[in-house]
């Protein structure tokens, strides 16, 4: 691995160490405690309780949504390894981002990671379930929030493009399904740089499988960048009794000058 690759990785990851329990509060439960997980708690309306301030979800770093990638297997703990079916131009752009040591990574410049990368970057988040929406609050990515409307409203005819898009949700049994369109083209799908266009349409499935585990599944549908829709999934652990910390990327981003490429 080249020095530039290491330095570029630092730009994305150095400020994220708190979320992995290095000097911070969001430390995973010990395996002995996690093994004793009870069933997913429920709210009075019968839906699974996705947290509601009782702790934080502590994502892993999913370097590559395929579960593999140029860093080799094992660095992206997805549930299975998949093939990501890129259009030729998307493959060329992806290869260029790898070859230049991720020097254009928007997250390294304090821009929001976008979807699904928001749930594959090692900053904890909380979920709050309100009568007409589900609210996600993220410690990282400029301390951003995400609203998922669950009141049955349709998508806007022409949503204003944004980093997180326009999200509409509904319950499919015990799974929160989130349908999102209206993305801008500024984010990467993962740290290795899989691209997307303004045609991106994501379908996410959030399932609290037990007291301490959230299964996250996302389907990527972007015919401009990929030859077919594709799906990946992974698990996110819960840390009860933990709060989010203040995180201001713009205030203390000391690594941007390391994004020099090759």
3D structure, described in words:
This protein has 262 residues and is of the alpha+beta class. It has one domain: Lipocalin (Beta Barrel). It is 10% helix and 24% strand. The chain has helices spanning 3-13, 31-34, 88-99; strands at 55-57, 125-129, 133-138, 145-149, 166-172, 175-181, 201-210, 213-221, 230-240. It has a nine-stranded mixed sheet with strand order 1-9-8-7-6-5-4-3-2, with no helix packed on it. The longest helix has 12 residues, at 88-99. The two termini are 12 Å apart. Residues 1-24 have low confidence and may be disordered.
What's a concise summary of this model?
With about 260 residues, the chain is an alpha+beta fold. The protein has helices spanning about 5-15, 30-35, 90-100, and strands at about 55, 125-130, 135-140, 145-150, 165-170, 175-180, 200-210, 215-220, 230-240.
């Amino acid at each position: 691995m080249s020095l530039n690759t290491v330095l570029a990785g630092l730009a994305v990851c150095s400020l994220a160490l708190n979320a992995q329990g290095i000097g911070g509060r969001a430390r995973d439960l010990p395996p002995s405690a996690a093994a004793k997980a009870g069933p997913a708690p429920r709210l009075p309306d019968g839906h699974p309780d996705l947290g509601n301030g009782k702790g934080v979800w502590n994502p892993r770093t999913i370097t590559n949504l395929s579960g593999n990638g140029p860093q080799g297997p094992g660095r992206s703990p997805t549930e299975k390894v998949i093939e990501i079916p890129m259009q030729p131009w998307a493959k060329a752009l992806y290869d260029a981002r790898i070859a230049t040591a991720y020097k254009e990574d928007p997250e390294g410049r304090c821009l929001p990671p976008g979807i699904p990368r928001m749930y594959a970057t090692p900053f904890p988040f909380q979920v709050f379930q309100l009568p007409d929406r589900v609210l996600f609050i993220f410690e990282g990515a400029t301390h951003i929030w995400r609203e998922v409307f669950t009141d049955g409203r349709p998508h806007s005819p022409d949503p204003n493009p944004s980093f997180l898009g326009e999200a509409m949700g509904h319950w499919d049994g015990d799974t929160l399904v989130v349908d999102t369109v209206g993305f801008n083209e500024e984010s990467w799908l993962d740290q290795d740089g899989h691209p997307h266009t303004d045609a991106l349409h994501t379908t996410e499935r959030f399932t609290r499988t037990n007291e301490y585990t959230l299964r996250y599944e996302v389907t990527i549908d972007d015919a401009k960048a990929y030859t077919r829709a594709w799906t990946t999934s992974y698990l996110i652990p819960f840390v009860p009794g933990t709060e989010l910390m203040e995180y201001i990327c713009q205030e203390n981003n000391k690594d941007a000058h390391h994004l020099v490429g090759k």
